[in-house]
Amino acid sequence: METIKIKLETSGERLDVSISKQLSFSRSKVQKLIDSGLVTKNGVPVKQKELSLVGDEITVIVPDAKGVEVKPVDIPLDIIYQDNSVAVINKQQGLTVHQGSGTGDETLVNALLYKLDSLSGINGEMRPGIVHRIDKDTSGLLVVAKNDEAHLSLSKQIEEKTCKREYVALLEGNLKTDSGTIETNIARSTKNRTMMAVSSVGRRAVTHYEVIERCSGYTLCKFVLETGRTHQIRVHAKHLGHPVVGDSVYGYKNQKFKLSGQLLHAEKLTFTHPETKKVVAFTAPIPEYFLSVLKKLGFTKR
């Protein structure tokens, strides 16, 4: 059992919303904790519909997970940096971040439990250390929290958009504009619940883009996330009419190149270190399978 104490940073929101944001818990998880009397203010259990007030001191008791075992597994992992607070991972394409339906024990979390000496516990036993995610078939950088203080700091940076996440992707077709911003709502698709879609409802999603180079009817593009919705770049690339090459879910079913997934790579990650308070930046080179396609097409800037 874990006890977490926080001071609310917003006023006028439903309490479950404010707490879920600050702790990076799902709203449903916070609601279950509230219903169980495990969330209190000044020792008094709170209600979900109660409104938040800046400065309120909230205590959240998180029971130990039951019936779940996430095993350490020796999976190759490119750890490009680590210290007592964080680890920065260059995740390979094909590796799922955490367990879900049908994933088994071959996930990043399983690998982290084997490789690292500690991980934050805020997200529970299923997702220890996980502050943010990238898709299974997307490669590149993500930061992992090794303790709860680091987790809260990194989650706050992502929420406040001070953690910068830069991606590079190869898009189908010739993108007409050199740069721009895509701002839509993204929600789960009503036609296929495993997919996301631009929608009139859903959560606000903002992606900035800039063309790096055009060649042979393809566009190499940099994307910078302002928000971090599920499949955001892939959905927004489709929305532009130029899906990511290799993306058989949001792009073309018949692919010209023999790829195992989309040519989308989290190339650069910048954040304030939770302990030193200094801004740090990390880069990960584009994988060889990605580079080989660029070379075949005649691209020169990567």
Task: Characterise this structure.
The chain is α+β, with helices and mostly antiparallel strands and 302 residues long. It folds into three domains: 2-62, Structural Genomics Hypothetical 15.5 Kd Protein In mrcA-pckA Intergenic Region, Chain A (Roll), CATH 3.10.290; 78-160, Pseudouridine synthase (2-Layer Sandwich), CATH 3.30.2350; 165-266 and 288-297, Pseudouridine synthase, CATH 3.30.2350. Helices cover 19% and strands 31% of the residues. The chain is built from six helices and 14 strands. It has helices at 15-23, 27-35, 108-115, 148-159, 232-240, 288-297, and strands spanning 2-7, 39-41, 44-45, 57-62, 78-82, 86-91, 139-145, 164-172, 179-188, 196-199, 203-215, 218-225, 264-272, 279-283. The strands form two sheets. Strands 5, 6, 7, 8, 9, 10, 11, 12, 13 and 14 form a ten-stranded mixed beta sheet that branches. Strand 2 and strand 3 (44-45) form a beta hairpin. Helix 1 crosses helix 2.
